[in-house]
Amino acid sequence: MDRGTGSAAVEGDALGDFRIVSEPYFRPVGNEVALFEAAFASRMPVMLKGPTGCGKTRFVDHMAWRLGRPLITVSCHEDMTASDLVGRYMLDADGTVWHDGPLTLAVRSGAICYLDEIVEARQDTTVVIHSLTDDRRILPLEKKNEVLKAHPDFHLVISYNPGYQSVLKDLKESTKQRFVAIAFSYPEQAVETEIVANEAGVDRPLAQTLVRIGHRARNLKGHGLEEGASTRMLINAGLLARRGIPIDEACEVALVLPITDDPDMRDALKSAVAACI
Hints:
Blueprint: H1 32-41, E1 46-49, H2 56-67, E2 71-75, H3 82-86, E3 87-92, E4 95-100, H4 102-109, E5 112-116, H5 123-126, E6 138-141, E7 146-149, E8 155-160, H6 173-176, E9 180-183, H7 189-200, H8 204-218, H9 231-242, H10 247-259, H11 263-276
Parallel strand pairs: 1-8, 1-9, 2-5, 5-8
Antiparallel strand pairs: 3-4, 6-7
Helix pairs in contact: 7-8, 7-9, 8-9, 8-11, 9-10, 10-11
């Protein structure tokens, strides 16, 4: 097998679309920035664990900007195959040509590869990352009869929501133990208020009201709701309110209707909204 790095001149213009040129807003709530920087310096794969809409993806965007590395994001799904990640031969005007997948592009160029909600992918697909997450740092391209050695700056990051774990949909222990994990959660009210005010562009009193609504909604998790209201949902409600939509209506369309189809649960959420405004 050829154990080369493949195309040496991959970076350049080919990664222009993957570079983050302006700083994404991110409000740290703990030591997550220092932990990620230490993991990157040691080239240790990172797992981000936390509920949906709590800032995991924004954090990766921010860290890619902070570290000056291109970021290649893959939204995982159950139909994703190993070829979708690694690449495949395709026909074009010149005949059969190999096209790198997003993971291979990141490995060649030294980008950060972010596999978002990795448990959505089939387990036989995620196995391809194993050889990249130990001291070998290689990616076998079986269809090319090539073993690709990772660029020194390549870094692998995955995320998932532990609340959606099940016997049939979870990471294998052999996969989990290859990563260092950073836990994410919804921030305390003062910090979340700051985030909502900044992201939605609303004043602090309105942001405080939205955050109170979010905390009341999260208290219903496990009592009819599978997942509480995310920070993202509160920001969406704030964006609507900023455009002149009454806050109760903004919360209904951004929070109540998306989060549940159960009429009783919707009534409970509407009551939570009414109690806060």
